[in-house]
Amino acid sequence: MRIATWNVNSLKARLARVEEWLADVQPDVVCLQETKLADGAFPAMAFQALGYDSVHHGEGRWNGVAILSRVGLDNPVNGFGPEDPDPQARLIWATCGGVRIASAYVPNGRSLDDDHYQYKLRWLARLRDQLAASEDPAQAIIVAGDYNIAPTDADVWDPKHFVDATHTSRPERDALAELESWGLIDTFRLLQPEPRLYSWWDYRAGRFHKHEGMRIDLVMGTQSVADRVTFATIDRNARKGQQPSDHAPVIIDIAD
DNA sequence: ATGGTGGCCCGGCCA
Prior knowledge:
Number of helices: 6
Strand order of the largest sheet: 3-4-2-1-12-11
CATH topology: Deoxyribonuclease I, Chain A
Strand content: 15-25%
CATH superfamily: Endonuclease/exonuclease/phosphatase
Radius of gyration: 17 Å
Number of strands: 12
Number of domains: 1
CATH architecture: 4-Layer Sandwich
Shape: globular
CATH class: Alpha Beta
Structural class: alpha+beta
């Protein structure tokens, strides 16, 4: 089973590229982030025509997450559940091909002194609480998405550039470590240990062409998923050419 | 780089 995560930075602006990419890469499950669509505008029929069932949790102008699947799509849940709603559309769950899968768009944080940074840390803690309350780490579970955290300095083009900035701060990395202590593993790193492999490059200052990016898009899976990973890559081709997202897809294959 | 580019959609906000 091939599983991918991709922050598309507007599905309206990116639909043609996403359709082309689906035909080329042939993923079984795709977690999308930043669709920037209301649910009524989500192009479910375009995906159905390509063989994918889909669920979307959107709010319109900002955020928005989706899961596409051609291996079944059951028991969808939006966010942290009805009793404790998140005002922003950043998380959706579904069961696909026997794996409980979440598409997550972790808040950016903006800056260390911004209220949005505290929202980011609380959001990550709530994700951890949801896992602890509702999921069993002995099962096959994947939380894939844009974490807006570079796990280590090996995931950043220039750590000095991010001193006193978000994405590399100790509290953010501690929050990621809390997810790992529950039982999630950075599956990409199991097969790709070398440093300076990135999934996001700022549109500005020619960062992509200078190979100056960060690895902030992660496929976090439980041990039973990690044991089955046979292939992992970042599809840099999707960051090239006309009107790319600023993120590239991360792709994982797991054995049946 | 208190810049830069690109999404939202037309004045800023967000990344």
